[in-house]
Amino acid sequence: MLEEGSDRRLVTFRFVLLALLFSTLALPCASVVFGSEATLIRHIIVIMQENHSFDNYFGTYPSANGSIVNAITARLHPVDGLPDNVCIRNGMTCYSPYLSNVSNPINPVEGQITYEQDYAAGKMDGFVTYSGPQSMAYFDYHQIAAYWDYAEEYGLADRYFASALSTTTPNRLFLLAGDSPVANNYGPPPYVNYNQTILGQLDAHGVSWGYFDFVNAFGLTRDVYPLNYLTNAPIEGHVEDVSRLFGYLNAGTGLPAVSFVNALGSDTLNEHAPQNVTRGELWTVSVVNAVMSSAYWNSSAILITWDEGGGYYDHVAPPQLLKIDHGFAHPLSGYGQRVPLLVISAYAKENYVSDTVLNHMSIVRFIEYNWNLPVLNDYVMNSNNLLEFFNFTAAPRLPVLLSETSPFSATTYPIPLQAPSNQTWTTSISPGPSSFRNFPTFSMLPAMISAGVLLLWVSRRIVGRTSNS
């Protein structure tokens, strides 16, 4: 029979063992072993270029209207590209999409009202009349082989839309704030409160962020567009020249958790017509290559998109899910023109084409989900997440570096696939209420059972020794 003191010690010890067991059962799932992230992604790099619709860049992907059909392209997943026999009338003339073969394409006419007229109440037949015949130009692998290679090797969305049926400023502000105080390219004022942006959210929860551009073109840091629309913004130390981004990647230290990367301060690299799109694309490739060559590759997701369609033709009518009026002369409609989204990561599914309705705020939603941040507003809440592009149960993929000297050329399409294109993918993490994000998964059961058995065995050994004493 146990003595009274020993009995109390044994009861206390059993209580401690039970507490340890329950603590083991409450451990977060394997996807957050690195810290507070809900996935294996610890760094998100958002590259936003200028003014190209989906049909303008990927309307003839993957076979370029049959001009390049081989063993690889024949196996690639198709996209909702340019339909056959498109011809939009303007007066007595009919205009069809045509391959642009010039290095300085004519810029389509832009503007909020112009884009709504292009949209033509969902008929998508106003482009020639309002944005001009040049709106029917498109590019393919001849000019943007690297973007087509990324679509082949990683993920491409063909139902991704600008957030608003308008121009650059409101759409870039939707990426930062899930809303816009302006309906077109004017201002500031009005302004956006920094605390009502994803940047303010990240700051408030201790998640680092950086904004990279060709900063010298803007003069003062506070004048960097479109951050100049933010009030009460402690942006010093966050806003840096793109050269600093390459420095962080080369050094393998200093890269923020969330990076917004832009070429708005460059007249030649942002892909806005009449700039050479290939030159801008190769600058984007240099950023992607730097990430792939760095220590950050296995923990990163690179998201490449374009702020708005620029007046270039796209045949898919954007769903009208938003109506925003902050005292505008003309209210904003959303979503806007369909634009491409490329998702590149060591965990990205190969040759994956998403037909989920997405928009710029889906990037905000993904950032919030990954770091368990509160949802910025209802517009972001109602935007779909990007989780379907990833497979977090597979081993990280080797990078696909595009260069002139490797088998994977930035000017050649198609390139060899890493894995069979007909493989079946499953998403290992799905969106859900934040209170369930860190709940143990079934993949942890073996570890839980082993820990429980070990603790019970230790308990019985100690009980035995105490009984014999």
Could you explain the architecture of this structure?
- The chain has 469 residues and is α/β, with parallel strands linked by helices.
- The chain folds into two domains: 4-27 and 444-468; 44-439, Alkaline Phosphatase, subunit A (3-Layer(aba) Sandwich).
- 29% of the residues lie in helices and 13% in strands.
- The chain has twelve helices and 18 strands.
- The chain has helices at residues 4-25, 54-58, 112-119, 127-130, 141-153, 168-177, 198-204, 242-251, 277-292, 360-370, 378-381, 445-468, and strands at 43-49, 88-90, 93-95, 98-99, 137-138, 155-157, 160-161, 192-193, 209-213, 230-231, 239-241, 258-262, 300-306, 322-324, 332-334, 341-345, 352-354, 358-359.
- The strands form six sheets. The protein has an eight-stranded mixed sheet, sandwiched between helices. It has a two-stranded antiparallel ribbon with strand order 2-3. A two-stranded parallel ribbon has the order 4-5.
- A hairpin with a 7-residue loop joins strand 14 and strand 15 (332-334).
- Helix 1 runs antiparallel to helix 12 and helix 6 (168-177) runs parallel beside helix 10 (360-370).
- The longest helix is centred in the C-terminal third of the chain and has 24 residues, at 445-468.
- The radius of gyration is 26 Å and the shape is globular.
- The N and C termini lie close together (10 Å).
- The model is unreliable at 1-6, 8-35, 421-459 and 462-469 (pLDDT under 50).
